[in-house]
Amino acid sequence: MRTYIADIKTLDDGSDVTIKGWVQETRKIKNLMFIIMRDNTGSIQVTAKKDSMKNYDQLYDITRESVISVYGTLNKKSISKSGMEIQGIEIEILSIADTPLPLGVIDRVSADFDTRLNNRFLDLRKPEHLLIFQFESQLLFGIREFMNKENFIEVHTPKIVAAATEGGADLFRVEYFEKNAFLNQSPQLYKEILIASGFDKVFEVGPAFRAEKENTVRHLNEFTSIDMEAAFIDDKKAMEYLENAISYAVNRNIDLMHTKLEEYGYHLEKIETPFPRISYEDGIEYLNDHGLKLNFGDDFSPEANKILAEKFNGFYFITGWPSDMRPFYTHPDTNPALTKSFDLQLNDIEVTSGAQRIHNYKMLEDNFMKKGLNKNDFEFYEKAFKFGMPPHAGWGLGLERLVMNLLHLNNVRESTLFPRDRTRLSP
Amino acid sequence: MRTYIADIKTLDDGSDVTIKGWVQETRKIKNLMFIIMRDNTGSIQVTAKKDSMKNYDQLYDITRESVISVYGTLNKKSISKSGMEIQGIEIEILSIADTPLPLGVIDRVSADFDTRLNNRFLDLRKPEHLLIFQFESQLLFGIREFMNKENFIEVHTPKIVAAATEGGADLFRVEYFEKNAFLNQSPQLYKEILIASGFDKVFEVGPAFRAEKENTVRHLNEFTSIDMEAAFIDDKKAMEYLENAISYAVNRNIDLMHTKLEEYGYHLEKIETPFPRISYEDGIEYLNDHGLKLNFGDDFSPEANKILAEKFNGFYFITGWPSDMRPFYTHPDTNPALTKSFDLQLNDIEVTSGAQRIHNYKMLEDNFMKKGLNKNDFEFYEKAFKFGMPPHAGWGLGLERLVMNLLHLNNVRESTLFPRDRTRLSP
Q1: Which residues does this entry assign to the site Important for tRNA discrimination (chains A, B) (predicted)?
Q2: B330-356: per-residue pLDDT in tens?
Q3: What are the backbone dihedrals phi and psi of residue A201, each rounded to the nearest 5 degrees, phi first?
Q4: In A, which residues are within 8 Å of B360 by CB distance?
Q5: Which of A27, A144, A397, B89 could bridge A34 with an S-S bond, Cβ 3.0-4.6 Å?
Q6: For residue A91, what is the DSSP state?
Q7: Does residue A394 share a domain with residue A298?
Q8: Edge to edge, what strands does the sheet with B173-176 contain?
Q9: Number of domains present in the structure of chain A
Q10: Which of residues 79 through 138 in chain B touch A, CB cutoff 8 A?
């Protein structure tokens, strides 16, 4: 029976234990060696004595990051840093690491990001990097728990599609047998078809693909999109689902892994709802009062977002964006220059975009025209509006970008296992 | 406040209630009309009287599958089939359906599958079709709950990749900026890199892409793959995780939705573990005793699978497949002609494939050679074997195929919202 290193502290002094993991460091004093061993839960010192170990000579030459299985006795009165060590009885060598390592695991020397990504399997062995993905996994589990309680159906819509969600730009082309196809940029149109299908409330977690040439610390060409759509709700209700899903999941994560997060320098505070809301128009006014010169229709610059972040400090919504700035499926407000839309910001970064959507067939057709789109490209979609489409609203949330901002990482690639960008297709 | 139709039975007679949904059927008697209204939880009769309804004339002409919002009073002494009806006070028309419907929702006339898929948004309004996807969503939630309890980290690996998982065949090509890329057939290689990264236990749910030209009732070119991989385990432990995950999730689903499943003719029985196991070699012998003529190295034909299905009736494992029949990363058994591999069968259909994987770098290199693969294509992968790779095992499971077989559907497209096959790319 294997014991994880983090669980050793619950065992009695003198217990026999088997642990499995990586050789992080060794120190050798003639006929005695100390191995700092690591698994995904922690690290511990193992002692091996020449007298009592058949394969001591082999072990003596073991390289850093080799994999071993240790059977031994727990000593809780050790003078090692943790006050515990395993006195090895049998140590099996499972895999020997080559030298030199292309990237250090415990070295303080920082490698450039390309070297780290080229050797991601070593980079991810650092506990502070593993923790990002444990956090991400649990965050998503929390979001799913919330959505499940709210009776959302989790769905899977196709990623190989015949038409562009947003109308043509930034698409990756796929050779699909004899046909031309694309990778989907967003499940938006399919979520809406499911609303027409009577699914009432759907959400999806899956890859989304954007052939954007921008190569910044916030952009990925493939990312994990969390999308929801619900029937018979408006933009305001969609915002409530969003703030409640995020606060539920983040606060659950803090409860689960607060100590570990703090240990590795990730500071998170419990989230309170409702999040503050500011309209686009009030935002413009506020920013102009604070030294900027913005007109209706202007996007918020990084500088503008920094000013708003200082005001709100954390999550906040910007609502009621101009029609010209939102996609064709966005529902107009009573004033048709504005839409029933919102962005969720975390400090100075947009993490979610959402809106009430158009459900009226005629209004949708008019919007295709206004946006210069060819309605024939969307036949599979607009057909679903002709035979009973309820009002509906929803949002889409980039998982990696959310985690990047929650954990104050400085590059979205830090919260992406194997990032895809303009220049990177491997590993 | 909206009430879902299924929740109406818990309300008191005479309660005021708002329901929202689709007009399934209407009957009209001069100044009185009856509307059978449907939402995603059920259906109920609504009465509308000319005397008390401002928009009665509009309502009188309402078409099937239009969307309405009804505010009215609950009458629990109705002579309608369910013994309940809503006496309408205000009925708002939210969306009018065109006529004729390209596909009926409640008609008993069965449409051909292409017509159904072309009008999937109407096809999915049938409660027996919706139920398949409610089942699928909850099944996956159950699997995740199990994996989370077992400390698996849910991960997302890239779908745009530079190399073929299985070595070149059946790949969809993607134009990735200036480079050539492919859609991933399976997260296998990435899961293994994560094992080398010290992630210990990972699982992923995501799309997998196979450019297979076969167009059968069991094949999809894009499907949802559930993949797991764990360090320091063998094929036998991987089989335990699999049977326990499936039985946990299926039995949870039966508890949750037994009544509804029975109502629509889906019969499921509680699953018991462990599942029976038969080795490939014993399978050959058993099949030859039952009239077939199979040699070592032959695959099991549909006829062979039917014979085994009669013997086992439900889930069973076939273990120890010949090396020639398994991918390059499969760990050989003590007898090198065999592998530490398994298939999970549900009756006569394979639903999962798994194995202990090779972790020794030298053995992996030899296997590239044996299988005629170019190791340079796999540099990003085999590098992770050089610096400490633990023994590991795992499996991959097709979600839609599992649901198809659990619910005894006759086509995997029935458990796929928007199937992709050789000829279908839309909707």
Answers
A1: 81
A2: 999 999 999 999 999 999 999 999 999
A3: -140, 120
A4: 95
A5: A27
A6: E
A7: yes
A8: A160-161, A179-183, A173-176, B173-176, B179-183, B160-161
A9: 2
A10: 94-98, 101-102, 119-125, 130, 133-134, 137
Closest CA to B198 of B227, B239, B235, B230: B230
pLDDT single digits (tens) B150-202: 999 999 999 999 976 666 678 999 999 988 899 999 999 999 999 999 999 99
Is the CB of B422 less than 8 angstroms away from the CB of A177?
A: yes
Q: Which residues of B touch A39 (CB under 8 A)?
A: 198, 200
Q: For chain A, what is the mean pLDDT?
A: 95
The answer to whether residue B414 scores a pLDDT higher than 90 is yes
What is the pLDDT confidence band of residue A126, given thresholds at 50, 70 and 90?
very high
Q: Which two tokens stand for residue B48?
A: 């509308």
Mutation test of the interface with chain B: which of A197, A223, A359, A421, choosing the one with the most B Cβ atoms within 10 A? A197
Q: Residue by residue, what is the 3-state secondary structure of A341-395?
A: EEEEEECCEEEEEEEEECCCHHHHHHHHHHCCCCHHHHHHHHHHHCCCCCCEEEE
Lowest-confidence pick of A235-239, A353-357, A412-416, B49-53: B49-53
Residue-wise pLDDT for B104-152, tens only, equals 998 777 889 999 999 999 999 999 999 999 999 999 999 999 999 999 9
Residue A136's Cβ-side half-sphere holds a number of Cα atoms within 13 Å equal to 30
CB-based contact B382:B364 (threshold 8 Å): yes
Residue A101 marked as a ligand binder: no
Q: Is B166 annotated as a binding residue?
A: yes
Q: How far apart are CA B408 and CA B348, in angstroms?
A: 12
Q: How far apart are the first and last CA of chain A?
A: 34
Residues 6+ apart with CB under 8 A from B282: none
Please tell me the predicted confidence (pLDDT) of residue B168: 64
Query: Across the interface, which of A40, A148, A174 has its CB nearest the CB of B200?
Result: A40
Helix (H, G, I), strand (E, B) or coil at A20: strand
Beta bridge partners of B299: none
Q: Does any domain span residue A66?
A: yes
- Is B420 a member of any domain? no
pLDDT of residue A401: 96
Residue with the two structure tokens 């052939």: A211
**Two tokens at B25?**
């059927």
User: H or E stretch including A161?
Assistant: strand A160-161
For residue A158, whether the previous peptide bond is cis, meaning omega lies within 30 degrees of 0, is no
Residue A200's Cα: distance from chain center in Å?
A: 26
What residue numbers bound the domain in which A19 lies?
5-95
Whether residues B51 and B169 share a domain: the answer is no
Q: Is the pLDDT of residue B24 over 80?
A: yes
How many CA atoms does the CB half-sphere of A267 hold within 13 Å? 1
Token pair recorded at residue A422: 């303009």
What is the C-alpha to C-alpha distance for residues B397 and B404, in angstroms, rounded to an integer? 13
Q: Which residue among A49, A77, A95 closes a domain?
A: A95
CB A136 within 8 A of CB A399: yes
Give the pLDDT band of residue B82 (cuts 50, 70, 90).
Answer: confident
